[in-house]
Write a structure and sequence with these properties.
This protein is mostly helical. It has two domains: about 1-415, no CATH class; about 420-479, no CATH class. Helices cover about 85% and strands about 0% of the residues. The chain has helices at about 1-35, 35-55, 55-60, 60-70, 75-105, 110-135, 140-145, 150-165, 175-200, 210-245, 245-285, 290-315, 315-320, 325-355, 360-385, 385-415, 420-440, 445-465, 470-479. The radius of gyration is 22 Å and the shape is globular.
Length: about 475
């Protein structure tokens, strides 16, 4: 199982490194620089509003389906025929509730128009993720790896035509950006549906209300967890837009810093998506998960620590390279958010492990506590610090919830404290701080200094055997 994890993770990361960074920094960033922080913030706050509520589209069905198909692959056809119907019912409920809340909080006609498009996009994303959960549940990880970048690859083509091919024949509007995303999602959803149908044969749609209600009852804990975690991860920009007079601009500034965190989180999500079916299967057959947990934790934590600490020293240079305005403010927010990514990375491993083990009650209690902390801190800090206040709230919330999940996972699985490993990690952190500080005295261009720091960090990680090429080689070729 460790061999399968490493080989498929390598393919997944390779494909996503080819596509998603260009989408985020080549397309999405360029759109913000063209339309401005205020206009992009207008879109960004609506996007996060739609993301908070998109749990209604899924109610935990995707994670539930992934976990169960991994353990009982013969149920694929039965689950698929019923859940597809359920997904469309949930889509209608999601649209009605979202538009209703949007009217309640006072969104104007332009906001409602864009929100409707984003609601449709969220449905397509949710439906695609559900279809892909069947593929990964069948352990077809290589196929799923290619499908994971299909929508972004199409968006790059369509948005490139908008940005550099002048496809609209006029000044780029944020609505054009959303239209291009919708087209890409439609095509990728249809393509993935055909692939799933190939593995299931002709799908006979059954509207078995008792069976659907049974699924809903079992998935509600997943739904609650996703809703709460989405709320404290995405509510920042919504509160900024609603609480401040210059809310759209502040949301846009926050989006500048958040973009890199969002890009990095995609790779953390890939870890989680790959680990969930693996952990589920290992737990079912009572195979120890200790080694896979340690391997996956180090593979994600070492580069995250290296990049997060280095970003603190070069935050202004990074933001200045990417954006045309609000560089100083967004650089402070960026540094805070990147440190919160360390905690988010811990959550991707240990939260996924607890999810695979069915510890939803405990995860929901942790997440609810995080949401309460986040909302209170945002309400207190936003009027005083604007977007920077939201970054502080995010850092504190993610840190608290990550440590809580780590502590509970250790109790449930009986993990023993590995003091030598902890000592190595803290030694690595100290080294990264020192090498970054010393790099400031170099006279070369900052990008060269940043690359030197990253290269030095990876070298010391290999020398200290935090990341062991020999062990990875043994796992891949000897397992």
């Amino acid at each position: 199982m460790k061999r399968k994890f490493v080989t498929n993770l390598a393919l997944l990361l390779f494909l996503n490194l080819l596509v998603k960074p260009f989408w985020i920094f080549g397309i999405d960033r360029t759109v913000q620089n063209i339309v401005g922080a205020g206009e992009y913030g207008f879109y960004f706050s609506l996007l996060n509003f739609s993301l908070i509520l998109n749990v209604i589209l899924d109610i935990g069905v995707t994670n539930y389906n992934n976990r169960n198909i991994s353990q009982h692959s013969f149920l694929l056809s039965k689950y698929l025929s019923n859940i597809i119907i359920l997904k469309f019912i949930l889509a209608v409920a999601y649209a009605i509730i979202s538009i209703g809340l949007a009217l309640l909080i006072g969104y104007d006609s332009r906001q409602l128009h864009l929100l409707f498009l984003l609601i449709f996009n969220q449905f397509l994303i949710s439906f695609t993720l559900f279809l892909r959960s069947n593929i990964s549940g069948l352990q077809l990880f290589r196929t799923d790896s290619f499908l994971s970048v299909l929508d972004k690859a199409l968006m790059i083509v369509f948005c490139s035509a908008l940005l550099w091919g002048r496809a609209t024949g006029s000044v780029l509007k944020i609505e054009h950006f959303v239209y291009a995303q919708t087209a890409a999602y439609l095509i990728s959803t249809f393509a993935i549906f055909l692939i799933v149908q190939k593995h299931t044969g002709v799908i006979k749609y059954n509207f078995n209300i008792k069976y659907i209600l049974a699924i809903v009852k079992q998935t509600m804990p997943y739904a609650l967890l996703v809703l709460i975690m989405a709320s404290y991860s995405r509510i920042d920009s919504v509160l900024l837009e609603r609480m401040l007079v210059n809310g759209t601009e502040q949301a846009g500034i926050y989006a500048q810093a958040f973009r890199i965190l969002d890009a990095a989180s995609m790779f953390g999500f890939l870890f989680a998506a790959l680990l969930l079916p693996m952990f589920s299967k290992m737990i079912k057959i009572k195979e120890p998960v200790n080694q896979l947990v340690q391997l996956s934790t180090l593979l994600i934590l070492v580069p995250v620590l290296l990049f997060s600490i280095s970003s603190l020293f070069y935050k202004t240079e990074i933001m200045g390279m990417l954006y045309n305005e609000h560089v100083q403010t967004s650089s402070t927010i960026f540094a805070l958010l990147m440190f919160s990514f360390v905690s988010i990375s811990v959550t991707y491993i240990f939260g996924t492990l607890l999810t695979a083990n069915g510890n939803l009650k405990q995860l929901n209690i942790i997440a609810a506590s995080g949401l309460l902390i986040n909302v209170v801190m945002n309400i207190v800090l936003i009027p005083k610090l604007s977007a920077t206040g939201s970054a502080y709230a995010s850092l504190f919330t993610q840190t608290v919830t990550a440590f809580a999940q780590l502590y509970f996972a250790c109790r449930v699985f009986g993990f023993k404290i590995n003091y030598p490993l902890i000592f190595k990690i803290f030694g690595f952190i100290l080294f990264v701080f020192v090498i970054n500080y010393l790099s400031l005295y170099l006279t070369c261009f900052w990008v060269i200094k940043f690359v030197i720091v990253l290269a030095s960090g990876f070298i010391i990680a290999f020398i200290s055997r935090l990341i062991s090429l020999k062990n990875i080689y043994r796992i891949v070729f000897d397992s």
